[in-house]
Each structure stands twice: as structure tokens, then as C-alpha cells.
């Protein structure tokens, strides 16, 4: 299985990981893993069953039992389409809190690795290059300034007809980044052998081209 190439794209919230990773996967004909969606699904499932978000055992149980289907751009939880529900801000924050629990992370590990299928995988998240696919062929740390990221998220929400406030978004994003980078297990950081791609002044197409170029060179 280790002959199957992985491109790992990690980075902070709204840096463009999902969009860029999906396009790179599309160009190469590779599979795509949105690992953040799994943490969001655990969060949604926990909130819906009124689980205690501080109970690591209950949460890791939920993570181990997740009944989820990824189908093109849609995500189904127990046969319900939750594609939009998991993007809600409450879910983002809960996801980032439960993602600090080692047992939850372990419970999701094999599920993520199962996405590694022929002819290849592009995976995005926080620990794709460091923990889940340490032997990835290419590791990218995708980032952009916090202001740029808040603006991108704002525009994205407005286009979906979801009301948002840019300064609240910026504050939420900073809080979540601090939690994701500061935690003791699988923190978000630019590890060794990972190339930095700052997209503050790059559009999606430029970021995609840059990754495809780097992949072609290895
Ligand atoms: O997955 P992640 O949270 O890192 O970000 P995303 O959802 O892929 O991207 C957030 C928003 O930024 C989307 O609406 C993208 O279209 C946009 N974006 C952009 O305007 N320029 C980029 N270079 C990358 C993303
Ligand atoms: O799209 P955005 O970058 O805002 O978030 P996401 O990638 O969907 O991830 C949601 C939350 O899940 C993050 O804030 C992390 O706390 C957690 N996460 C993680 O810990 N490890 C991953 N590989 C992916 C997400």
C-alpha cells in the first residue's frame, strides 16, 4: 500500500486547503480526503446526542462508530446529508476542541488511512504529513495571513447566503489556530521536509499549479 503516493496538505483554517487539495486531486485523478470533515462529524454527532464535549471516552466511542459516507462533494452521517451542517461555526469550534483528545485522534486514524487507494491520494488537514501519512511523497504547509483567511471565509459564507461578521470570524479563526497549533498531540506546525506555500497573494489556480509543479519534480 505504501507504493501509493500521497500529497499531504496541512495548514490553518481557511487557507484554501480544501479547495486547492480537491483541484490537485482532480488534475491528477487522485482520491481526496477531507480529514477535518471527520473531526467535524464527530463534533456534530456528539452535539446531537448531547454528549459531554469534555468526556474523551464517550467522544472516542463516537469517533470509532461514525457511520459516514463521502460521496463526491456530499457528506452523509447516518443517511442524513450533513454537508452544510458540519460547516457551522459551532461545529468548527467543537471540532477543534475534541481534536485535542488523543483517543479521538487514534479512533480516526485507520479510517483516514483507508483513503489511500490507487492511483493516489491528496489529503488535507492539520497532521496529514506529520502523523497520518508520514511517508507522503509531497508535504505542503498551506497558509495565508489571518486577515486574508478571514476575508476568504467571509466571502465564502456570504456566497452561501450565511450571514457573518468579519471581525468575529477573524477572532474565531485566531482562537482555533492557537488551539490547533498549541495542543500537545498532532499540533499544526510546519514539520521537517514540508514546503511552505503562502497564498496571501496567490489565487487558487496559482497555488494548484505550484503544488503540481513540485509534485512533478519529485
Ligand atoms: O479548507 P480550508 O478551510 O483551508 O479553506 P477552503 O474552504 O478551501 O477555502 C476558503 C475560501 O477561500 C474558499 O472560498 C476558497 O475559494 C477561497 N480561496 C481563495 O480565495 N484563494 C485561495 N488562494 C485559496 C482559497
Ligand atoms: O476548514 P477549516 O480549516 O476551517 O477546518 P477543518 O480542516 O475542517 O478542521 C476542523 C477542525 O478539526 C480543526 O480546527 C482542527 O482542530 C481539527 N482537525 C485536526 O485536528 N486534524 C486534522 N487533520 C484536521 C482537522
Automatic annotation (TrEMBL):
Residues forming the Cytidylate kinase domain are 7-215
Its name, as the record gives it, is: Cytidylate kinase
EC number(s) on file:
2.7.4.25
Which residues of this UniProt protein bind ATP?
11-19
The domain of life for this entry's organism is: Bacteria
Q: Which UniProt keywords apply?
A: ATP-binding, Cytoplasm, Kinase, Nucleotide-binding, Transferase
Q: Which EC class, in a word? A: transferase
Catalytic activity annotated for this protein? dCMP + ATP = dCDP + ADP; CMP + ATP = CDP + ADP
Which NCBIfam families does the protein's record reference? Answer: cmk
Q: Does the keyword Transcription apply?
A: no
Q: Which Pfam families match?
A: Cytidylate_kin
GO MF terms listed in the record are:
kinase activity
User: Where does it live in the cell?
Assistant: Cytoplasm
InterPro entries in the cross-refs: Cytidylate_kin, Cytidylate_kinase_dom, P-loop_NTPase
Question: Of which family is this protein a member?
Answer: Belongs to the cytidylate kinase family. Type 1 subfamily.
